[in-house]
Amino acid sequence: MLLAHKVELRPTKEQAIYLDKACGSRRHCYNQLLAYFKENKWSKSAAYQYYIKVIRKKFDWYTEVSSRVTRNAIDDLDNAFKHFFRRVKLNQKAGFPQFKKKDVNDSFALREKAKFGVDERLLRIEKLKTKIKMRQKLRFNGIAKQVTISKKAGKYFASILVETQEYNPKDVERESSVGVDFGIKNLATLSTGVVFPANQKLKKNLNKLKKYQRVLSRKQKGSQRRVKAKLRVAKLHFRISNQRQAALHELSDYLTSRFDRIVIEDLNVKGMVKNHKLARSIVDAGFGYLRQQIKYKAELRNCELVIADRFFPSSKTCSKCGQIKTELRLSDRTYHCSCGLEIDRDLNAALNLNAYGVDTLQPT
What we know:
Layout: E1 2-10, H1 13-37, H2 44-58, H3 67-89, E2 107-110, E3 116-119, E4 122-125, E5 132-134, E6 143-152, E7 155-163, E8 175-182, E9 186-190, E10 195-197, H4 201-204, H5 206-217, H6 224-258, E11 259-264, H7 269-272, H8 279-285, H9 287-300, E12 304-307, E13 334-336, E14 342-344, H10 345-360
Parallel strand pairs: 8-11, 11-12
Antiparallel strand pairs: 1-5, 1-7, 2-6, 3-4, 4-5, 6-7, 8-9, 9-10, 13-14
Helix pairs in contact: 1-2, 1-3, 2-3, 5-6, 6-9
């Protein structure tokens, strides 16, 4: 089993300089290859020959970092071209590979075990004389297969992929099934009656973010003050992202540790954000990321994830008698049925989703 653990690094000034050089070398090599193959037919073997015979000889400062930092840029570009050709074949919006920009998703990878090593809370990297301190030890014992080092908001992170056999979900008494209704007012309403309130950190920090961006817009390009203002904006975005992810991890962990079957909606997020009045709240909720978290944690913990059909009328159906209410406005927060049922709209939807999961999995 392959599991990844992302750890914050605590590099010294000298180590940070090396990491910046490695990120810059990888970005530069990627851009040099892309510039060449914009004019020539792409092939991985041709890219390797061009890298060896031209790029490495022309830019001798590549040798200041591990050779695999720039060599692995070929694999990254090959992956980008594969996705491009796949989308072309499927008649989708292709999106030709783009040049990498400085301070935007800066990273580099070492995919060879000999080029790095992990010892307790220390990370060894080829051509770096000292080991980098990690904020914590790896959660998994096993063989470290590769490491990807990234920089975001002035901080450095190492995502270490570990091959391990020791992960065993805890055997706990779990309830059989739960339906989960996602929303904006409340992040999630469970069929058990448990409610996870909305945690819209972007909305709470919007005024501060506007202020920081206004200050940034007034700084002269190329100045140190602009660099500092840009970093302050990035740090606030990073903090908001971490707060959002923490809330989504809490919810996904709660569901996968307490229930054998989880039934969720197949939300059309792309269609939902077309509503300009709710677009920011929908994006801030992070429904797509939440679904990913539930999916992979369910696999690890041997849970069954059921995704209801996109057109299943979970909100419009009465959870008591099954009658469908065709006219139900978004502003109607309480569901009223002719059978006498009065229930919260989201709880009603969660009960219907739970019933959907039970009915779908019954033998015919």
